[in-house]
Design goal:
Number of helices: 4
Strand content: 15-25%
Strand order of the largest sheet: 1-2-3
Shape: globular
Structural class: alpha+beta
Low-confidence stretches: none
Bound molecules: zinc ion
Mean pLDDT: 89
Distance between the termini: 36 Å
Order of helices and strands: HEEEHHH
Largest sheet: 3 strands, antiparallel
Helix content: 40-55%
Length: 150
């Protein structure tokens, strides 16, 4: 798994140096604040849902490298997804970091987010990596879901 570890460090560094979608969305959409007192990570996630699709997502805040990189990668992963897909991804990501099995049921659905699987070995860091996701999910819980036949 050393390839995954290298990729993890590379991605964390890249996203910490150049966080994607690091900006406010003002006036439209929804937002929620997340705080991880254990580490001091604080962030705000902004979300615009249009027709059941995440058309824009961003965040601001400060915290450790893992929390910022995770938030950055989350925004990249969720843009263009439906609410249902975003919720599924949150579930998979959560499983990846907290599950007591070898991995998520459908690792390919997570794309490069699988690099966070290694964080599971460091329980204190799990909250850092999942903070943005919990915050995003809090917004989704208040979104109206379009009727789906699936
Ligand atoms: Zn942290």
């Amino acid at each position: 798994m050393s390839d995954l570890r290298d990729l993890y460090q590379e991605l964390i560094l890249d996203h910490t140096k150049k966080p994607r979608n690091f900006r406010k969305i003002e006036g439209v959409g929804s937002k929620a604040d997340g705080h991880n007192p254990l580490c001091g990570d604080k962030l705000t996630v902004f979300l615009i849902v249009d027709g059941g699709i995440v058309t824009d997502i961003s965040f601001i805040g400060s915290g450790c490298a893992i929390s910022m990189a995770s938030a950055s990668m989350m925004t990249e992963s969720l843009k263009g997804k439906t609410i249902a897909e975003a919720k599924t991804m949150f579930g998979r990501f959560h499983e990846l970091l907290t599950g007591d099995f070898d991995g998520p049921r459908d690792p390919e659905s997570l794309g490069k987010l699988v690099v966070f699987g290694g964080v599971k070995e460091f329980p204190v860091r799990v909250k850092c990596a999942t903070l943005a996701w919990h915050t995003m999910n809090a917004i989704l819980e208040h979104q109206e879901e379009p009727v789906s036949t699936e």
